[in-house]
């Protein structure tokens, strides 16, 4: 099969992301890249744990003073749901249903965007209510770097998925862009998994002290 | 598009190299850039040795000495040794597995340009207010106290070039996993391919901690965070851990490919199959794995405690086992072989005792209790130069001679090559052997001068004389390269006559599609098998057909240029108002170039069967 071939729902292969050599390479290369990203976040988590609650004096807010469950719970639900919607998008991609794929990807983007807005609100809250900033303490630096790196990944993921959607809006699905959609959704799941760890390590473990 | 190489003007050639995605041309770019940085790092080494030749010398000032010393280490590791190895990996590995290119040709070019711009950025520090001066390890307690922008150049430059290296690593991994020719199973892969594979896996897992460490440094120095500011709750030991979690595997990233190169050379010039192939593969993988378990042996004196020190000491000593396996396998490869002492073989033979010397001192340093005596002394300097020069640089010089004909189609002069070898070998041992004793007598690392009559005078002078031998050897190598390039006597597929692996089955240099038909691999050392059965070349595994090739692109250059510009913005953000603007413009160039790459259709092109048939004089037959 070739990248420039035209397909119908009947002729569309079962694993379109791995039909061409380019697709296979992209699939494997991206998994490996995620391996590297895992180490990157592991280093950030280690740094955060080493510097958690390390502040210059008693006036600074600590993790147990800062975090509130409701807002973090909503953020978690938004991001977990966006992972689910991206699964639906890939389901329709595999069934050659381009319109439905775009629809579910659109939902994914909306949920991701809502998550990002909530995170900005949360950061803003810490800065203005608690004077917990990037430069106020080592704890602040480590917190905003870990959570901010994740937020940056979400923002990049949104740009990526929107670019893919716009670029292929008129083209439809083929074996050239199927792997692209697939790895973008892999990336989105990865961001989600990282968030599960942030939710546990930063927020839950932060609230119990 | 024609398949014929056409005569091109100078401008067209430059444009071709700026936009190329061909692994063989990118290899040449890596070789040129890495070679330039190697000469630069070598000059810095000469300044160090001239300053230390006699006591109380004032050839350079103390501050400048710190800058030279820092840039020598940083340049040699990141900008010379690794890119030169990447050059050979790029040139040879795809040929060894019977592939037409790497998995991601575009990303390959991007990786090169990121490395190149990162290296240029780092070295521009010399002209823009002073180079970094906290040593190549740039420990946070030192680097946070360093004034000026030197450390900022270090952090930003390495960040950019490190991104390029990470991409290269992923690219090689995917290439080796997905693009091997029919019959090329994992356990038939040549050792250089195997070591490229393991080194790439190390890059994948070792570079992200460096990325994080550099980000923390950038944030602390340029954006006011407090990771390493103890007064605000920070902790400088975090940098030490992150740096060495990267830094120790980095040593194996450098030396494993060199091991691979030597394995090829030993088998070729002993005209014998590599002894203990499977145990060689096993040892390579094991060294790669253990390489991640030993980083804290660089931090024995940091004060992690006796339990941590004991564990890391034992893990470190364990690495001697797979390394020993390799040494004996090389010796047994030569045993009973019909040995030809060509220049690459001379380097290989000299490498064994030299590297073992570094290994022995390595085990000495691994004893945590004894390390308190050796730590930060010239003994350590002697140790790592025995490993890096005796292992990696010998490997690079050997590979330069061994693979030159495959990359450029002409042989380097053997007589000059042997002169280079002997001068370099003598110079190397003269320089570094005495440093063991200087260290044991109490000479500390990183000092810019010493007092007379403390038993250090003669040793330092001898060491400096040795350095000049190495410099002259390098000059003769450069002369050799110029002479051979001017003469340009073309050679055939297998100029060493004893080639065993696939790269020697195709023309030198190979046509841009490498293999006209993918070869059928029937065992380890596939070309040797065919030769032993009286055949001229490989049996093709596929009928002649159209070959799909990627298009050239200027985009990798632009993406890297954007980051280069952005780095200046980050650096000068607090000094000048235009800093932020430059940062945004730079990031904009990068993101826009990435966007263009994403949006544009780029399906590559096909070389048609008919053109391939007419292409007989260029060969490329499998």
Account of the protein in words:
The complex is a heterodimer of chains A (209) and B (622). Chain A is mainly α. Chain A has helices spanning 21-51, 63-66, 69-94, 98-130, 138-167, 178-207. The N and C termini of chain A lie far apart (57 Å). Chain B is mostly helical and 622 residues long. Chain B contains 20 helices and two strands. Chain B has helices spanning 10-19, 23-51, 62-96, 105-124, 140-143, 150-178, 191-222, 237-270, 277-290, 306-318, 320-334, 343-366, 368-374, 378-408, 414-440, 457-487, 526-532, 555-572, 578-599, 609-614, and strands at 547-549, 605-607. In chain B, helix 6 (150-178) runs antiparallel to helix 7. The relative contact order of chain B is 0.11. The interface between A and B is large, with 37 and 42 residues.
Strand content of chain A: under 5%
Give the number of helices of chain B. 20
Number of beta strands of chain B = 2
Structural class of chain B: mainly alpha
Uncertain runs of chain A with pLDDT below 50, 5 residues or more?
none
With helices defined by DSSP (H or I, 4 residues minimum), what is the helix count of chain A?
6
Shape of chain A: elongated
Order of helices and strands of chain A: HHHHHH
Please give a quick description of this structure.
Chain A is mainly alpha-helical. Chain A has helices at residues 21-51, 63-66, 69-94, 98-130, 138-167, 178-207. Helix content of chain A is 74%, strand content 0%.
Give a topology summary:
The complex is a heterodimer of chains A (209) and B (622).
Chain A: H1 21-51, H2 63-66, H3 69-94, H4 98-130, H5 138-167, H6 178-207
Helix pairs in contact in A: 1-5, 1-6, 3-4, 3-6, 4-5, 5-6
Chain B: H1 10-19, H2 23-51, H3 62-96, H4 105-124, H5 140-143, H6 150-178, H7 191-222, H8 237-270, H9 277-290, H10 306-318, H11 320-334, H12 343-366, H13 368-374, H14 378-408, H15 414-440, H16 457-487, H17 526-532, E1 547-549, H18 555-572, H19 578-599, E2 605-607, H20 609-614
Antiparallel strand pairs in B: 1-2
Helix pairs in contact in B: 2-3, 2-4, 2-16, 3-4, 3-6, 3-8, 3-14, 4-6, 4-18, 6-7, 6-18, 7-8, 7-9, 8-11, 8-12, 8-14, 9-11, 12-14, 12-15, 14-15, 15-16, 18-19
């Amino acid at each position: 099969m070739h990248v420039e071939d035209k397909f119908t729902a009947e002729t569309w292969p079962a694993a379109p992301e791995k039909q061409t050599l380019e697709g296979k390479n992209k699939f494997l290369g991206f998994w490996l890249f995620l391996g590297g990203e895992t180490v990157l976040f592991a280093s950030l988590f280690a740094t955060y744990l080493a510097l958690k609650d390390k502040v210059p004096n008693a006036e600074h807010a600590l993790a147990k003073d800062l975090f509130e469950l409701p807002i973090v719970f909503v953020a978690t639900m938004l991001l977990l749901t966006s992972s689910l919607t991206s699964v639906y998008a890939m389901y329709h991609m595999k069934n050659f249903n381009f319109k439905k794929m775009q629809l579910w990807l659109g939902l994914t983007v909306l949920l991701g965007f809502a998550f990002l807005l909530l995170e900005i609100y949360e950061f803003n809250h810490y800065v203005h209510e608690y004077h917990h900033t990037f430069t106020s303490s080592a704890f602040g630096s480590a917190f905003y770097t870990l959570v901010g790196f994740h937020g940056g990944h979400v923002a990049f993921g949104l740009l990526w998925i929107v670019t893919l959607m716009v670029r292929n809006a008129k083209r439809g699905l083929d074996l050239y862009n199927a792997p692209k959609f697939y790895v973008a959704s892999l990336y989105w799941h990865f961001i989600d998994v990282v968030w599960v760890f942030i939710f546990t390590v930063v927020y839950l473990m932060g609230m119990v002290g | 598009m024609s398949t014929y190489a056409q005569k091109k003007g100078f401008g067209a050639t430059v444009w071709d190299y700026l936009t190329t995605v061909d692994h063989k041309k990118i290899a040449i770019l890596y070789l040129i850039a890495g070679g330039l940085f190697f000469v630069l790092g070598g000059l810095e080494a000469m300044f160090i040795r001239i300053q230390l030749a006699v006591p109380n010398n004032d050839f350079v000032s103390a501050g400048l000495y710190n800058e030279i010393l820092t840039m020598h280490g940083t340049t040699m590791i990141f900008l010379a040794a690794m890119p030169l190895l990447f050059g050979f990996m790029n040139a040879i590995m795809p040929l060894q597995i019977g592939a037409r290119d790497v998995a991601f040709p575009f990303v390959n070019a991007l990786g090169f340009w990121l490395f190149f711009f990162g290296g240029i950025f780092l070295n521009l520090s010399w002209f823009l207010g002073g180079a970094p001066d906290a040593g190549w390890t740039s420990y946070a307690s030192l680097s946070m106290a360093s004034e000026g922008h030197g450390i900022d150049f270090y952090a930003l430059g390495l960040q950019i070039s490190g991104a390029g290296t990470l991409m290269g690593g992923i690219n090689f991994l995917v290439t080796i996993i997905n693009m091997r020719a029919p019959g090329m199973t994992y356990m038939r892969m040549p050792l250089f391919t195997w070591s490229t594979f393991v080194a790439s896996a190390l890059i994948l897992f070792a570079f992200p901690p460096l990325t994080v460490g550099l980000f923390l440094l950038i944030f602390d120095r340029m954006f006011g965070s407090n990771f390493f500011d103890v007064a605000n709750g920070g902790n400088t030991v975090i940098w030490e851990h992150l740096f060495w979690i990267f830094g120790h595997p980095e040593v194996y990233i450098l030396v494993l490919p060199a091991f691979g190169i030597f394995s090829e050379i030993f088998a070729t010039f002993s005209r014998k199959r590599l002894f203990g192939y499977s145990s060689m593969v096993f040892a390579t993988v094991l060294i790669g794995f253990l390489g991640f378990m030993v980083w804290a042996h660089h931090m024995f004196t940091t004060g992690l405690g006796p339990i941590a020190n004991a564990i890391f000491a034992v893990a470190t000593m364990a690495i001697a086992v797979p390394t020993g396996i390799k040494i004996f396998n090389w010796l047994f490869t030569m045993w009973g072989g019909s040995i030809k002492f060509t220049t690459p073989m001379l380097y290989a033979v000299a490498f064994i005792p030299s590297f073992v010397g570094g290994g022995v001192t390595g085990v000495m340093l691994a004893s945590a209790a004894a390390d308190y005596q050796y730590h930060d002394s010239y003994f350590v300097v002697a140790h790592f130069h025995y490993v890096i020069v005796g292992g990696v640089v010998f490997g690079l010089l050997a590979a330069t001679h061994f693979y030159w004909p495959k990359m450029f189609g002409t042989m380097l002069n053997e007589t000059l090559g042997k002169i280079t070898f002997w001068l370099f070998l003598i110079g190397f041992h003269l320089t570094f052997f005495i440093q063991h004793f200087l260290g044991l007598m109490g000479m500390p690392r990183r000092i810019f001068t010493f007092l007379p009559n403390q038993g250090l005078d003669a040793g330092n002078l001898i060491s400096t004389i040795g350095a000049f031998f190495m410099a002259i050897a390098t000059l003769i190598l450069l002369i050799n390269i110029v002479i051979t390039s001017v003469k340009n006597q073309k050679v055939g597929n297998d100029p060493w006559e004893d080639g065993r692996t696939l790269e020697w089955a195709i023309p030198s240099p190979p046509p841009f599609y490498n293999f006209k038909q993918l070869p059928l691999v029937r065992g380890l050392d596939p070309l040797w098998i065919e030769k032993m059965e009286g055949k001229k070349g490989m049996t093709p595994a596929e009928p002649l057909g159209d070959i799909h090739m990627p298009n050239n692109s200027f985009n990798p250059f632009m993406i890297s240029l954007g980051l280069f510009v952005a780095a200046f913005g980050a650096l000068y953000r607090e000094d000048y108002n235009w800093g932020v603007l430059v940062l945004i413009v730079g990031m904009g160039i990068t993101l826009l170039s990435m966007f263009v790459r994403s949006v544009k259709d780029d399906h590559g092109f096909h070389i048609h069967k008919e053109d391939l048939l007419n292409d007989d004089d260029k060969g490329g037959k499998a």
